[in-house]
Amino acid sequence: MSHPTALITGGTTGIGRAVAGLLHERGHRVVVTGRDPVTLEAARRELPDDVVVRRADARSLPDADRLAEEVRERFGALDVLLLNAGITRSLPFEEVDETAYAEVFDVNTRGQLLTLARLLPLLADGASVVFTVGAGVRSGIPGGALTAASRGALLSAVPSLALELAPRRIRVNAVSPGLVDTPIWAKGGLPPEALAEYAGRVPLGRPGTAREVAEAVGYLVGAGYVTGQELVVAGGSGLGA
């Protein structure tokens, strides 16, 4: 019996790493990518030995090409692609300049869409593609416009991609986490107390966990009749007036 193969960009930490663990538990052969030497080394130490960990910058097309070639040689095809690599920048809109715009959109939008384009020939018929977007695209937080715009561009592409790839039975969906306790908060410049403050506004009264988001991705991977959809995992955030 052959095992399905999954590739997770931004898979060395947080949600991506949780998805890697879950899919490995479910019998997938797993490849994860990242660009931080510290998290890459931690992933190599702590993930199962047969999980392939590779350095790849989501902004780099040569990195995407090298990744595609290795997947082709090692596994032949991909059954699952989670486009999860991303960054968060929290800053007042008046401080947004060309450098900040380019950094965020190059990783969150250009990098994810062009990575999909590079890997598309490797996707098996019936494969599952999932984008990590974010509940903030719809609900909004002060200082989050740049990140939300870059992720929202992915969400707007999902229905068109789902229709275009449907003849190959490739399903394209999005998972949108709300407040989740992962390292991306600190990387985005938000202080630790912000997590507790925002948690107080979540109807379920707490941040989510990376594993809970991973379970949602696992559902989308296995849901053979779901495509072009967004699954929000946000503890009820956004409900009500």
TrEMBL record:
CDD domains for the chain: SDR_c
Keyword hit for Manganese: no
Keyword hit for Oxidoreductase: yes
Superkingdom assignment: Bacteria
Molecular function, one GO term: oxidoreductase activity
Residue ranges of every copy of the Ketoreductase domain listed in the record: 4-169
Protein family per UniProt: Belongs to the short-chain dehydrogenases/reductases (SDR) family.
Protein name as it appears in the record: Short-chain dehydrogenase/reductase SDR
Organism this protein belongs to: Actinosynnema mirum (strain ATCC 29888 / DSM 43827 / JCM 3225 / NBRC 14064 / NCIMB 13271 / NRRL B-12336 / IMRU 3971 / 101)
Highest classification ranks of the organism: Bacteria, Bacillati, Actinomycetota, Actinomycetes, Pseudonocardiales
